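Hi support team,

I've been running sequence recovery on a batch of backbones for a student project. Most finish fine, but this one hangs at about 90% for roughly twenty minutes before it completes. I'm not sure whether the input is malformed or the queue is just slow. I've pasted the structure tokens below so you can try to reproduce it. Let me know if you need the job ID as well.

Thanks,
M.K.
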């Protein structure tokens, strides 16, 4: 089991998510949940790992599946 801690940033701000969605749309792209890939779901947040610049866009249903006890450092 990997017990290494990784710093993450959670982006839930509606304005920021809207801006990112508009930016993606202007480039012919769209934000789609990285977990379920359901393009009809509304994006609720983005998990960002600043060190690697990786990011996962999550819909509301998948966002709620993040276990309550998970320790996230921001």
């Amino acid at each position: 089991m990997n017990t290494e801690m990784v710093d993450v940033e959670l982006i839930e701000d509606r304005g920021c998510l809207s801006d990112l969605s508009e930016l993606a749309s202007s480039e012919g792209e769209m934000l789609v949940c990285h977990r379920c890939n359901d393009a009809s779901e509304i994006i609720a947040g983005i998990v960002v790992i600043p060190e690697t610049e990786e990011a996962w866009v999550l819909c509301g249903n998948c966002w709620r599946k993040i276990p309550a006890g998970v320790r996230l450092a921001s």
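--
Follow-up from support: It reproduced on our side and the slowdown came from queue contention, not your input. The chain is about 25% helix and 20% strand. No action needed from you.
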